[in-house]
Amino acid sequence: MAGLYFVIGFFTFAPHVLIGLFARELCPSKPSTAGGFVKALGQIGGAFAGAPLMYIVATYDWKAAFYLWIAAGVCAGLCFLPLWSVKPTKAVAVKKKTQ
Questions:
Q1: Complete DSSP assignment for 23-56
Q2: What pTM, to 2 d.p., does this model score?
């Protein structure tokens, strides 16, 4: 069972990190704000996802819930599609603090 948890965590953590990194790359002047905004929206979505999912499972079944997740994943991918070829405007130099 621990191996299964490892595999699930491995495959879900990478997209989680890449979405935050993508937001930081699109807004190089304020990367922390962009990353925080994306993470905050993800937390809000996670907080409110339980009630609609519970309603779908109670009204229909788990098969309908899985179809909903598949449709949501496809929609999310389509939302990112226009940003596929976007490149940062310029690199922002970071000064290292010396002690």
A1: HHHH-TTSHHHHHHHHHHHHHHHHHHSHHHHHHH
A2: 0.54
Q: Give the angle 49-50-56 at the CA atoms, nearest 5°.
A: 95
CA distance 85 to 79: 13
For 21-31, the pLDDT digits (tens) are 888 888 878 88
Contacts (Cβ under 8 Å, ≥6 apart) of 26: 34, 83, 86, 88
Whether 77 and 18 have beta carbons less than 8 Å apart is answered as no
| CA distances, 39 to each of 23, 53, 90 (Å) | 10, 21, 24
Which tokens sit at 44? 């809000």
Tokens of 89: 């405007």
Both tokens assigned to 15? 């997209």
